[in-house]
Amino acid sequence: MTNMQSFGLMDMQLRIDPDARTLYIVLGHSGEMAMETREIDERRTLDYDLRGDLVGVEFLDIDEGIDLDGVPHAGRIARALAVMQIGRAPRLNSSHVA
Fold first, then answer.
1. Distance, CA of 19 to CA of 37 (rounded, Å)
2. What is the per-residue pLDDT across 26-80, written as a single tens digit (0 to 9) for each?
3. Residues 70-87, buried b or exposed e (16+ Cβ, 10 A)?
4. Other CB atoms closer than 10 Å to residue 23's CB: what's the count?
5. Cβ distance 83 to 14 under 8 Å?
6. What are phi and psi of 79, to 5 degrees?
7. For residue 58, which of 87, 36, 81, 26 has the smallest C-alpha distance?
8. Which residues contact 4 (CB under 8 A, 6 or more apart)?
9. What is the C-alpha to C-alpha distance for residues 7 and 84, in angstroms, rounded to an integer?
10. 34 CB neighbour count, 10 Å cutoff
11. For residue 76, what is the enclosing H or E element?
12. What is the pTM of this model?
Protein backbone atom coordinates (compact mmCIF):
# COMPACT_ATOMS: atom_id res chain seq x y z
CA MET A 1 0.00 0.00 0.00
CA THR A 2 1.28 3.45 -0.86
CA ASN A 3 1.06 6.78 0.93
CA MET A 4 0.42 8.71 -2.30
CA GLN A 5 -0.50 12.33 -1.64
CA SER A 6 -1.97 14.68 -4.22
CA PHE A 7 -2.12 18.48 -4.04
CA GLY A 8 -3.66 20.94 -6.49
CA LEU A 9 -1.83 24.23 -6.71
CA MET A 10 -2.04 27.05 -9.25
CA ASP A 11 -2.37 25.35 -12.63
CA MET A 12 -0.65 22.13 -11.65
CA GLN A 13 -1.18 19.06 -9.52
CA LEU A 14 1.60 17.57 -7.40
CA ARG A 15 1.50 13.84 -6.69
CA ILE A 16 3.94 12.68 -4.06
CA ASP A 17 4.67 9.08 -3.17
CA PRO A 18 7.01 9.15 -0.17
CA ASP A 19 7.34 5.35 -0.12
CA ALA A 20 8.60 5.30 -3.72
CA ARG A 21 10.40 8.65 -3.20
CA THR A 22 8.77 10.13 -6.31
CA LEU A 23 7.09 13.38 -7.29
CA TYR A 24 4.95 13.72 -10.39
CA ILE A 25 3.73 17.14 -11.47
CA VAL A 26 0.74 17.40 -13.80
CA LEU A 27 0.85 20.70 -15.69
CA GLY A 28 -2.32 22.49 -16.74
CA HIS A 29 -5.91 21.34 -16.52
CA SER A 30 -6.31 19.82 -19.96
CA GLY A 31 -6.34 16.22 -18.81
CA GLU A 32 -4.30 15.26 -21.86
CA MET A 33 -2.59 11.90 -21.65
CA ALA A 34 1.16 11.58 -22.04
CA MET A 35 1.98 10.17 -25.45
CA GLU A 36 5.77 10.57 -25.31
CA THR A 37 8.26 10.48 -22.47
CA ARG A 38 11.69 12.09 -22.72
CA GLU A 39 14.36 11.41 -20.14
CA ILE A 40 16.45 14.34 -18.95
CA ASP A 41 18.56 11.97 -16.83
CA GLU A 42 18.04 8.88 -14.68
CA ARG A 43 16.09 10.87 -12.07
CA ARG A 44 13.94 13.18 -14.25
CA THR A 45 11.51 12.61 -17.13
CA LEU A 46 9.21 14.86 -19.13
CA ASP A 47 5.83 13.73 -20.52
CA TYR A 48 4.34 15.30 -23.66
CA ASP A 49 0.86 15.02 -25.15
CA LEU A 50 -0.02 14.29 -28.78
CA ARG A 51 0.46 17.97 -29.73
CA GLY A 52 3.93 18.04 -28.17
CA ASP A 53 2.87 20.11 -25.14
CA LEU A 54 4.46 19.30 -21.80
CA VAL A 55 1.85 17.66 -19.54
CA GLY A 56 3.94 16.21 -16.73
CA VAL A 57 7.31 16.05 -15.02
CA GLU A 58 8.51 13.14 -12.89
CA PHE A 59 11.26 13.32 -10.29
CA LEU A 60 12.73 10.18 -8.73
CA ASP A 61 14.72 9.84 -5.49
CA ILE A 62 13.29 13.12 -4.18
CA ASP A 63 14.84 12.49 -0.76
CA GLU A 64 18.15 13.34 -2.46
CA GLY A 65 16.77 16.68 -3.68
CA ILE A 66 14.88 18.02 -6.68
CA ASP A 67 17.02 19.31 -9.52
CA LEU A 68 15.12 21.80 -11.70
CA ASP A 69 18.07 22.62 -13.95
CA GLY A 70 16.95 22.11 -17.55
CA VAL A 71 13.33 21.44 -16.62
CA PRO A 72 10.76 23.48 -18.62
CA HIS A 73 8.66 25.80 -16.43
CA ALA A 74 11.27 25.47 -13.67
CA GLY A 75 10.29 28.82 -12.14
CA ARG A 76 6.61 27.87 -11.83
CA ILE A 77 7.54 24.47 -10.45
CA ALA A 78 9.98 25.98 -7.93
CA ARG A 79 7.32 28.38 -6.67
CA ALA A 80 4.80 25.54 -6.25
CA LEU A 81 7.37 23.40 -4.42
CA ALA A 82 8.21 26.34 -2.15
CA VAL A 83 4.54 26.89 -1.29
CA MET A 84 4.17 23.19 -0.49
CA GLN A 85 7.56 23.18 1.31
CA ILE A 86 8.80 20.33 -0.86
CA GLY A 87 12.37 19.88 -1.97
CA ARG A 88 14.24 21.24 1.01
CA ALA A 89 16.96 18.62 0.44
CA PRO A 90 20.46 19.89 -0.45
CA ARG A 91 20.29 19.25 -4.20
CA LEU A 92 17.29 21.50 -4.85
CA ASN A 93 18.29 23.73 -7.71
CA SER A 94 16.11 26.81 -7.91
CA SER A 95 18.39 28.83 -10.18
CA HIS A 96 15.48 29.27 -12.62
CA VAL A 97 13.13 30.96 -10.17
CA ALA A 98 11.92 34.19 -11.74
1. 23
2. 987 666 788 999 999 999 999 999 999 999 999 999 999 999 999 999 998 998 8
3. ebebbebbbebbeeeebb
4. 23
5. no
6. -65, -40
7. 26
8. 15, 16, 17
9. 9
10. 16
11. helix 74-84
12. 0.77
